[in-house]
Amino acid sequence: MTWTGHNLSRRRALAATTGLTVGALLPAGPARAAATAPSASYTNPVIWQDFADIDIIRVGNTYYCSASTMHYSPGAPVLRSYDLVNWEIAGHSVPVLDFGPKYDLNGGRGYVRGIWASSLAYRPADRTFYWLGQIDFARTYIYTATSVEGPWTRHATLPQVYYDAGLLVDDDNTLYVAYGNGAIHVARLSADGRTQVRTQQVFSTPPSIGTLEGARFYKINGSYYIFLTRPANGQYILRSTSGPFGPYTLRRVLLDLPGPISGGGVPHQGGLVRTQDGAWYYMAFVDAYPGGRMPALAPVSWTADGWPVLQLVNGAWGRSYPSPAVPPPPRQVTPLTGVDTFDGTALAPKWEWNHNPDNGKWSVNNGLTLRTATVTNDLYWARNTLTHRIQGPTSTATVQLDHSAMRDGDRAGLALLRDASAWIGLKRDGGVTRVVMVDGLTMDGSWNTTGTGTERASASVPGGRIWLRANADIRPGASRPGTFSYSTDGVTFRRLGPAFAMGNDWRFFMGYRFALFNHATQALGGSVRVTRFELSTP
Fold first, then answer.
1. How confident is the model at residue 12 (pLDDT cuts 50, 70, 90)?
2. CB contact at 8 A, 92 and 133
3. In contact, 415 and 514? CB cutoff 8 Å
4. Which residues contact 172 (CB under 8 A, 6 or more apart)?
């Protein structure tokens, strides 16, 4: 079953395979004089990278959104914007996936588990950001920080499982959680946010709708709203004028609405946010595999009786809208594309590891050193594989790599990583190093390895330095090609191997990523050094 038109909840799929608050929702009122009139238009998707299950808030003049990362570490990225259109990755709410050894690739694997459909909120009383999410249908975790850059620390572990939760900070700073699949519940937390005080079912999804999940919880002009998705083609909203525990009335926001990405799905499962001058927007994601799920933004108006209405363009989610009227930004955000030379001693927040890394086997010091951390012939079991999202609709990753310290049996390179993968890189055997293109790395629907790769082409490698390049076409609607090339001087690149077909199945949830890896097949001890990574678009 492909992602198009699927009506299977994540809960069922995952089981089968193994708020927004005060600063963001201000009372309605006249536009603020400080806001600037829109002088341009923006184009959807506003972020053509894989950021799904969006929660979005505003604190003062700054917008933040959070997204799912599944098995990638650190998890739950926080993006920042000053205009709702241009975004940068500021940090991660979950510094390490310390939820069991499988997230360390130790005796098990966490693929299609981990961080998903979580919530981000800001509590003015303690000037603190709160992240809340459940893990493995076992318990719910809350992390807090006074700055989205961190440090984020674990605030509480709750025995309750708040599935697809939305966190609300009420006007009196009380914490509420809306959650559930089909049966929607509301919970109230203790004043310190460490225990549950009360929970109650507030709504049962009619059979005619099917499934509702992906809760986002708001208080707007005295009414309580729970924003819910019908995966993967609809969005509904519940409203209560009697308090957070209801009763609630249901209204549809969208269903089978044409989206802004050609070949992509229906925009759904996101959040509402209000600008400084009183305008409202809905940021949803669009299923757009093989790249993943891409955020799209549309204006929202409100009926006289208090219901949101999405502003359409010719009966569809617009590919373009006037830019939001916001104050001038204090600075330009850091682009999601460009060059990273790994300056300093820490990774930029755009990088995420495939599962938790072995921190004794990598370092950053004006360059990235990856020492072999795993002896395996299976990339899906190899620790310290470092990933970067692909920029759509097409983009190219180029890596400058020093391989002079590789040892016999080592494998290092640049991959297009998902449940079916391919890579270009280096094999060192018998004292000889070759550049190779490998495909046929595959997993089944339970995320067990079914193929460890087949070498399709190779060439001799002079010296100890090489440039590796992967080009990815992630336009949705069909399998798309990924191609590989290499250079020995950084100027002239030679194509290596056949095109790799990147599939568009949704069940892995995360889209394709570029991945840097170095693992051993014989013994540990070797290393490679990445001195430059560039993500570019045509």
1. low
2. no
3. yes
4. none
Residue 516 contacts residue 370 (beta carbons within 8 Å): yes
**CA angle, 532 then 393 then 72, to 5°:** 60
* Tokens found for residue 268: 């759904």
User: 71 and 355 in contact (C-beta within 8 Å)?
Assistant: yes
Residues 227-256 pLDDT 10s: 999 999 999 999 999 999 999 999 999 999
Residue type, 219: K
Sequence-separated (6 or more) residues with CB below 8 Å from residue 208: none
Residue whose structure tokens are 């341009």: 40
Whether the Cβ atoms of residue 251 and residue 239 lie closer than 8 Å to each other = yes
Instruction: Provide φ and ψ at 102, rounded to 5°.
Output: -65, -25
The number of CA neighbours under 13 Å toward the Cβ of 44 is 30
Q: How confident is the model at residue 5 (pLDDT cuts 50, 70, 90)?
A: very low
Q: pLDDT per residue over 305-332, tens digit each?
A: 999 999 999 999 999 999 999 999 999 9
Tokens of 513: 């990523």
Q: Is 186 helix (H, G, I), strand (E, B) or coil?
A: strand
Token pair 């990405």 in the structure block, residue: 261
Here the tokens at position 280 are 């409202």
Cβ pair 391, 537 in contact under 8 A: yes
Gap between the terminal Cα atoms of the chain: 33
CA atoms 25, 28, 30, 31: torsion sign: positive
DSSP letter string, 45-81: -S--S---S-EEEEETTEEEEE---BTEESEEEEEEE
Answer for the pair 326, 82: CB distance below 8 angstroms, yes or no: yes
* Distance separating alpha carbons of residues 153 and 151, to the nearest angstrom: 6
Pairing state between β 386-389 and 394-402: unpaired
Are the C-beta atoms of residues 24 and 60 closer than 8 Å to each other? no
Q: Say how far apart CA 276 and CA 324 lie, in whole Å.
A: 10
Under DSSP, the state recorded for 16 is H
Secondary structure of 403-447 as H, E, C letters: CCCCCCCEEEEEEEECCEEEEEEEEEECCEEEEEEEEEEEECCCC
Could you give the CA distance from residue 4 to residue 497 in angstroms, rounded to a whole number?
31
Q: Look at 107 and 478; give whichever has higher pLDDT.
A: 107
Structure-token pair, residue 362: 């990598």
> Reduced to 3 states, what is the DSSP secondary structure of residue 379?
helix
Euclidean distance between CA atoms 429 and 411, whole angstroms: 9
The string of pLDDT tens digits covering residues 266-292 is 999 999 999 999 999 999 999 999 999
Q: Chain centroid to CA 233: how far?
A: 19
| pLDDT exceeds 70 at position 11 | no
* Amino acid letter, 517: F
SS3 category, 34 = coil
Q: Could you give the angle at the alpha carbon of 471 between the alpha carbons of 474 and 269, nearest 5°? A: 25
